[in-house]
Design goal:
The complex is a heterodimer of chains A (about 375) and B (about 550).
Chain A (H helix, E strand, L loop, with lengths): L6 H10 L4 H9 L2 H19 L6 H26 L7 H16 L6 H24 L5 H20 L9 H8 L1 E5 L3 E4 H18 L1 H11 L1 H6 L4 H27 L9 H11 L11 H20 L7 H33 L2 E2 L16
Antiparallel strand pairs in A: 1-2
Chain B lengths: L20 E10 L2 E11 L4 E5 L6 H9 L6 E6 L2 E2 L5 H6 L2 E4 L11 H5 L6 E2 L2 E2 L1 H14 L16 H14 L4 E5 L7 H16 L3 E5 L3 H7 L2 E6 L2 E7 L5 H8 L40 E7 L6 E5 L4 E6 L5 H8 L7 E6 L2 E2 L5 H6 L2 E4 L3 H5 L6 H5 L1 H6 L4 H15 L2 E2 L11 H13 L5 E5 L7 H16 L3 E5 L3 H7 L2 E6 L2 E7 L4 H9 L19
Parallel strand pairs in B: 3-10, 3-11, 6-9, 9-10, 15-21, 15-22, 18-20, 20-21
Antiparallel strand pairs in B: 1-2, 1-4, 4-5, 7-8, 11-12, 13-14, 13-16, 16-17, 22-23
Helix pairs in contact in B: 14-15, 15-16
Classes of the chains: A mainly alpha (about 375), B alpha/beta (about 550).
């Protein structure tokens, strides 16, 4: 059984055969997924130069809070995109959840918890339907989620008549607009910042779990993944559920910010996709980091803020977003090809035998698994 | 420039005419691997010219260059004395050279006539004239003796054989002076084959030159006047069919030294681990009668029929056969990717029929696929992620344990890479294959199915794969290996199963020769025995 080694030695070897932390960090920054962090820093510096008050801790933390809903949506969208699919229903899920909260909670504080539970169940079910229709009925996700988007939107318009609804109880709105107050330096830590941090940590952890790695493998090559024993349909369906659940969280936060109106959440799917693409996540799946998707949302929001400070009318927002999505995808494709052409030669030069021990490993007597 | 002028000795007549096709010194490489070197052949009007060779000998490449699908690197092609170079299949068609490929290209929801005249429909004014088109098609089909196919039938309503015939009719409709056919009978059964024979002979009588590629030696001898043998991208010889017989043809097709790099068998290891394998499989002979790891009886599905085999612990069983004989399908059926739907399947003596790869993995079966890039690897993921692919997908709880062992198994397989974070797409074919092996070793499978395990990898990696197979056998695992490389099958296998047309054509012992295997695989006649009899066990012609 020479395939099995002494675990302790193995661990040491694993470290030895991976590049150092610093080197891996620098290597990462050169990829599109790392580049978005550089872009974000550049944009933030530019904003501060334009408007130094933006650099104040309290206004900066509010910027993070304001961006949290779209960043959370981008994280949700990431799971679907990295598995090789799209979720266009996200914006409508946000809208629907906002309306559900507004209508079902009303002024009754005691209904907050049950309705929250209902909203998460609704989100999960919508994701489940999106996922199952895509994977089991083999309808392209583009179509499935487009249909879901229209169906939910129609439902919302029917329910509301297209008009604004009464706001839900204040305790519910506090989730989106409140925060921990009297914090030194920052004054306030908005709840959305905390929720975003929790979602980001959860997403990061999930992507390092077997589920996350299998999701990447499915997005990269679903045939190979199926032939390694992965349940491709269930892996992808769960990604759709994560996306709809993320949209639900965004919706909850937006009720606090924006109130209850059928236009809340409109266009969210495209903003989320733009953010994910800006984060260097490859459309078609298999490539990209979840935190880069979140960073993409921040870079997008920072860009809009910068344009705002520079006096560009906010009506340009859609145009800017449209250009970004095309440029980002084109750039990713280019850098990808360049890497492919140049990369292999460079990579070959430094290749070496991966060794487990100083001398060629002979079988050890540690058997079993 | 050894130009082979055929038919000198044949006396078949066509010599008096100018050759309709002359190929001289044709050479083609893919990514530096020569697949066709200095190939030359001559085709006369009315001649049926057989092209034979093992898998990968270069037959299909030759066909595709002639059809304009691939571009040649060097050499000349003369059509009726004129040098031509096709950059697109349309040009070949227009020059009178039509090719019927193995894959069908008919549009299922168009009629026969629409398929035949696709893109060049007869017109009436600005509109397509269906009447003209259907009439022309009817004439065409009638002239080929297949008037029973109606021009207005939808392609999807036709049988496989009829579709094949429509493909040929389409080729003829271009006024082809030359038709090349790549395995035209691959999908046909007995009576349908004779229908095809009739068409081929009719075309030859009209003066069409026909290049006929087939694995089935019987057809070659039934139809062809001249036979060209290809091996490893080179032309071995071109001879009149009358001068050849099954034995001499098969010898020309093989006749390559078996390399000596197959490692010796390892002594069986005492069952050290906590494996559930029944005792130590001291000798891989059936005499000790341990429970077979895998046993099939009368198993079949859409592509396989009546498969019966046993795989014992510690055994390496080779599966030989031509392309399309059902070898890969057999592995995929055992692995649950295209499960059996009849017959019995047992694992460790217990009935088990995995209905998905996932179930198969849980039963301790591993499949190393034929096409590692399309089916075996996530190319954008790292070595580490690929190696952990199976564990994470099927046994996520074991991930952290296996993770510690990854570098060790890479080391044993002699993987060469920058580090564990490198994406596998940047590795050489041999190293990629080792990653595929590593990901399966990580779950300690009991039955290892290998499909073309050494295709496209260098010799060093091949030896590593062979050593691993020996090691697995010594550990009491069962290895079922499909390979087109006959030396490999012979050099590694304890027993050899030969497949033909989705069935097991026979079983050969370890010392079998390439000729014996090929004879079973092609269904070649052995003088003195009944033709098409699969139960032959050996003997020379």
């Amino acid at each position: 059984m020479s395939t099995i080694l002494d675990p302790a030695a193995g661990r040491a070897v694993l470290q030895q055969n991976r590049a150092g932390r610093g080197e891996r960090f620098l290597r990462g920054l050169r990829t599109p997924g790392g580049g978005v962090f550089v872009l974000l820093v550049v944009l933030l510096v530019a904003i501060v130069i334009q408007n130094p008050s933006f650099g104040e801790p309290e206004s900066f933390i509010r910027f993070i809070g304001r961006t949290a809903p779209i960043a959370i949506a981008a994280i949700g969208q990431y799971f679907v995109i990295v598995s090789g699919e799209f979720d266009l229903s996200m914006g409508s899920v946000v809208t629907m959840q906002v309306i559900v909260a507004g209508n079902l909670i009303g002024d009754d504080d005691s209904k907050v918890i049950p309705v929250l539970v209902l909203m998460f169940v609704l989100g999960a079910v919508i994701g489940l339907i999106n996922g199952l229709v895509t994977t089991l009925l083999r309808v392209p996700s583009f179509i499935v989620t487009l249909g879901m988007m229209l169906a939910l939107l129609g439902l919302v318009l029917f329910w509301t008549g297209g008009a604004a609804q009464g706001n839900p109880a204040d305790s519910f709105r506090q989730i989106g607009r409140g925060g921990i107050e009297d914090v030194p330096v920052l004054e306030i830590i908005p709840y959305p910042v905390i929720i975003l941090a929790a979602v980001a940590v959860l997403a990061f952890w999930l992507m390092r779990r077997p589920y996350g790695r299998t999701l990447l493998a499915v997005g990269d090559n679903d045939v190979a993944a199926a032939l390694t024993g992965a349940r491709v349909w269930w892996v992808r369906t769960r990604a759709f559920m994560l996306s709809s659940l993320a949209a639900t969280v965004s919706g909850i936060l937006l009720v606090g910010y924006a109130g209850v109106h059928p236009s809340v959440g409109r266009g969210y799917e495209f903003t989320a996709i733009t953010a994910v693409v800006l984060g260097g996540v490859v459309l078609g799946g298999g490539r990209g980091w979840v935190l880069s998707a979140a960073a993409g949302a921040f870079a997008l929001e920072a860009l809009f803020t910068l344009l705002n400070f520079m006096g560009v009318a906010s009506t340009w927002r859609n145009t800017v977003q449209g250009v970004i999505i095309i440029v980002a995808v084109a750039a990713a494709a280019q850098s990808w090809q360049r890497k492919r052409r140049g990369g292999s030669a460079a990579a070959h030069s430094e290749q070496q035998r991966i060794t487990a021990a100083p001398e060629p490993a002979e079988g050890t007597d540690k058997g079993g698994n | 420039m050894e130009r082979i002028v055929s038919n000198d000795a044949a006396g078949n007549g066509p010599k008096r005419e100018q050759p309709v096709l002359e190929v001289r010194g044709l050479t083609k490489s893919f990514f530096g691997n020569p697949v066709l070197q200095d190939a030359s052949l001559t085709l006369h009007p009315g001649e049926v010219h057989g092209v034979v060779g093992e898998n990968g000998a270069g037959k299909s490449t030759l066909m595709k260059i002639l059809a304009g699908v691939y571009q040649r690197d060097s050499g000349t092609v003369l059509l009726r004395g004129q040098s031509v170079q096709f950059s697109h299949p349309i040009q070949a068609h227009e020059a009178g050279l039509s090719t019927v490929f193995q894959e069908f290209n008919l549009l299922p929801d168009r009629t026969v006539a629409e398929n035949i005249y696709l893109g060049r429909e007869p017109r009436k004014g600005m509109l397509v004239s269906r009447a003209k088109m259907n009439a022309a098609t009817a004439d065409l089909l009638e002239s080929l003796g297949i008037g029973f196919i109606r021009p207005t039938s939808l392609a999807r309503s036709l049988s496989v054989a009829e579709q094949q015939i429509v493909e040929i009719a389409k080729a003829v409709s271009y006024d082809a002076r030359i038709i090349s056919m790549d395995e035209p009978t691959a999908a046909l059964s007995g009576p349908e084959v004779s229908l095809l024979y009739g068409i081929v002979q009719r075309l030859a009588e009209r003066g069409t030159g026909i290049l006929y590629v087939s694995h089935r030696l019987r057809e070659i001898f039934d139809l062809c006047q001249t036979i060209t043998v290809l091996k490893d991208g080179r032309i071995v010889d071109t001879k009149p069919a009358a001068e050849l017989d099954d034995g001499s043809l098969v010898r020309m097709m093989v006749g390559r030294p078996i390399s000596a790099y197959f490692p010796d068998k390892l002594p069986a290891e005492p069952a050290a681990g906590s494996q559930t394998a029944e005792g130590p499989a001291a000798t891989p002979g059936e005499a000790t009668a341990p429970t077979p790891l895998l046993e099939l009886d009368g198993a079949g599905n859409d592509q396989l029929d009546g498969i019966g085999l046993k795989l014992m612990p510690g055994e390496i069983v080779g599966v030989a056969g031509l392309q399309g004989s059902g070898r890969t399908e057999l592995l995929h059926a055992v692995f649950g990717a295209a499960p059996f739907n009849r017959g019995s399947m047992q694992l460790d003596g217990l009935p088990a029929r995995p209905h998905s790869p996932r179930q198969a993995v849980r039963h301790g079966i591993a499949l190393i696929t034929e096409d590692r890039k399309a089916q075996g690897l996530s190319l954008n993921q790292s070595l580490l992620d690929n190696a952990l692919g199976v564990v994470r997908a099927v046994f996520p709880g074991r991930t952290s344990t296996v993770r510690r062992e990854v570098a060790g198994s890479f080391s044993i397989l002699e993987v060469v890479a920058r580090d564990l974070d490198q994406e596998v797409q940047y590795l050489s074919g041999g190293n990629q294959q080792k990653i595929v092996l590593a990901k399966w070793l990580a779950v300690s499978p009991r039955v290892v199915l290998l499909d073309e395990p050494t295709r496209g990898i260098d010799v060093g990696a091949k030896v590593a794969v062979y050593r691993l197979m020996r090691q697995l056998a010594a550990e009491g695992k069962g290895v079922l290996m499909v390979s087109s490389e006959l030396p490999e099958v012979i050099g590694m296998s304890d027993r050899i199963l030969v497949m033909r047309d989705g069935q097991l054509a026979g079983e050969l012992p370890a010392g079998a020769t390439e000729e014996e295997i090929l004879r079973l695989a092609t269904g070649a006649r052995v003088p003195g025995t009944a033709p098409e009899d699969g139960s032959t066990t050996g003997g020379t012609a």
